[in-house]
Amino acid sequence: MPSCPLCANPTTHHFHADGRRDYFRCSVCDLVAVPPEQRLGPQAEKAVYDQHDNRPDDPGYRRFLGRLFDPLSERLSPGAEGLDFGAGPGPTLSLMFEEAGFATRIHDPYYHPAPENLKRYYDFITATEVVEHLFAPGPVLFALARQLRPGGWLGLMTKRTPEDFARWHYIRDPTHVVFFSETSFRWLAEALGMSVDFPAADVVLMRRDTSH
């Protein structure tokens, strides 16, 4: 059985199989993950992403992103600077923050690679519909948290695992390889030494301590 890609616990257990993939659940952080050998390769993964049609001029897409943008922007101080990690082919959340007066850089490994932006410090970092795609969510999220200034915010949007996992539409996307529960995010927040809040069913906000 594979080790957990979030907390590195070596004793995950087989949780579900749907005929296409297997799913293993961690007994420590409650993350559900697809084993490495059943993930898509880079070309196949990008081919799925290329089918997405998310545009800045789409009011529906902006409303969707508003579920994270609204509660996070209300918590930011004037002049806060941010990073949108995994911005996708049509960066929109970064524009929404820019329009609200918050300078925001972007990074997306496929569409807008900007590794230099991963070496800066920010007052907030967002990742909308990103973490469920991460092969190594633990190392990635720990690295992003280290880029936050004291009092900085990490804002994530992803659907949380339901009780009826077998019927969940989220697992039908072959690029979705890890699935977080509220317990998973509480474990992550504690491991990072951050506070955690759940302003919406698919949104989590974590804040770094203001003292360090």
TrEMBL record:
<dbReference type="InterPro" id="IPR029063">
    <property type="entry name" value="SAM-dependent_MTases_sf"/>
</dbReference>
<dbReference type="Pfam" id="PF13489">
    <property type="entry name" value="Methyltransf_23"/>
</dbReference>
<protein>
    <submittedName>
        <fullName>Methyltransferase</fullName>
    </submittedName>
</protein>
<dbReference type="GO" id="GO:0032259">
    <property type="term" value="P:methylation"/>
</dbReference>
<keyword id="KW-0808">Transferase</keyword>
<keyword id="KW-0489">Methyltransferase</keyword>
<dbReference type="GO" id="GO:0008168">
    <property type="term" value="F:methyltransferase activity"/>
</dbReference>
